[in-house]
Amino acid sequence: MHTRTIKRYVALLVTVSGMAALTMNATALSKLVTGSLAESGQSYLAANTGTVPALEVKGTAAFYNGVNINLTSTTNSAGYSSFAGYAREGGMMWLSGGTVNSIFGTGLGVTTHSSGSFYNVTIIGGGQAVRVLGTSSVLLEECSITSDNGSGVYLEYSSTGILRNVDIRSGGYGIYGRYENTTVSAENVSVVTTGNGVSGIYLTPSSNASLLNVSIRTEGDNGMGVHARHTSTITMTDGVIATVGANSHGVYTSANGAVVLDRVTVSVAGDGAHGVFANNGRVSGSNVILTASGSGANAIQTGSGERDSGVNSAVSFYHGALTVTGDLIVNGTAHNTVVLLDHVQVFHGGNVATNAGIGTLSMTMVGMELSGGITGSGSSSTTVSLDDSRLFGDITANDDAALTVNLDNASELTGKIDPVDLSV
Predict the structure, then answer these.
(1) Closest by Cα among 401, 398, 356, 397 to 381
(2) pTM as predicted
(3) Among 202, 201, 203, residue whose Cα is nearest residue 231
(4) DSSP state string for 362-387
(5) DSSP assignment, residue 296?
(6) Average pLDDT over every residue of 110-124
(7) Alpha helices in 79-150 (DSSP H)
(8) pLDDT tier at 112, thresholds 50, 70, 90
(9) pLDDT at residue number 78
């Protein structure tokens, strides 16, 4: 005679208030915490009713401290009920170890003046993996983050994200800071995105990111390694940016956004993919190693496709090296563009510079060895200033374009000049 034991778990909402501390090994359907609760052990919370998250920490008196807690949501809903873990209205959620998985929605949500601290947690979202908004903050350390269709880490409305030793794999944006005053601090973080039209890190507007030893790789067309938009600033030190795909640029700035690079390697591979694209934005770099390969792939591209009133494009590099199959510098329709290259090694397959349309381009080259032509076309205006530099190539402009060359500190110029105002 065989004996079979059947365990049946009943749909259950557990509400905890006041002070509590316990160890659980059973499975509750979901849990609402409004007081203080500490749990440890292989605990399992799941939500599939379509009305509540697996774990909800709600209110300024709510504090949840969980060790090796596993949260799962199978709710297919656009609302917060699809969150596996959710802290809101001043709640605090601490998790160490365990897995958080929302099959269709957001893995972890921290909203409305709440905070979350997550250590060594695997976080998975069918949409966004981590969502932080409403002047909230999150600390992610030693975490693995995977999002299928949304952002790996999404922040908005004056929220803060601190990431240390984190691995992000995303079908959408890796890290997305949206709306005003979002702050991102990332150290020893790896970001890989696999969708078209997404960025490894994207900030807009008036937000800031500080990146130290961060590696970013995007796989897909029309993507960006990093994108700073609308007065946002991204500062990156000792990092790597790699993009693979057509029109996928390494560094992109627009509408007065800014990116600052120090000891960063940028590699782009794809037709029309540029190492740097300043679309009425600013990029500065020190000791940057940049390579761009593909048809029409340029080192520095500028444009005015997205323009705030009075905004100019500016790109500067100090030391480092630029290696491209296309042109070194191309100014499309940007107005009042300024480019400075100071003691940078350059290797390129096209022109030193091309200025087309109606744009104004001012270039200063200090301590440079340049081989290739400079071309002005349309009604563009180009000024080239060589300081202790040598340019081996032709300088040409059509009848409607203006082109001026200034030579200082024993600079040398060879090749055809037609027609150019030359000042020595």
Answers:
(1) 401
(2) 0.92
(3) 203
(4) EEEEES-EEES-EEE-TT-EEEEEEE
(5) T
(6) 97
(7) none
(8) very high
(9) 64
What are 324's strand-pairing partners? 292, 348
Residues 262, 265, 270, 271, CA torsion sign: positive
Cβ-Cβ contacts under 8 Å for 350 (sequence gap 6 or more): 298, 324, 325, 326, 327, 328, 372
Give the integer Cα–Cα distance in Å for 132 and 182.
10
Which residue in the block uniquely carries the two structure tokens 């270039």? Answer: 363
Query: Cα separation of 221 and 64, whole Å?
Result: 42
d(CA 116, CA 389): 54
Determine the pLDDT at residue 6: 26
The span from the CA of 364 to the CA of 391, in Å, is: 12
Q: How far apart are CA 113 and CA 39, in angstroms?
A: 23
Q: What is the CA radius of gyration of the chain?
A: 26
For residue 304, what is the DSSP state? -
**What 8-state DSSP symbol labels residue 80?**
G
- Cα 77 to Cα 58, 83, 127, 154, 372, distances in angstroms: 20, 9, 11, 18, 58
Please give the residue that has the higher pLDDT: either 171 or 421.
Answer: 171
Find tokens 């917060």 and name the residue. Answer: 80
pLDDT digits (tens, 9 = 90+) for 297-309: 999 998 875 554 4
According to the model, what pLDDT value does residue 47 have?
74
Q: Is 1 exposed, middle or buried (0-12, 13-18, 19+ CB in 10 A)?
A: exposed
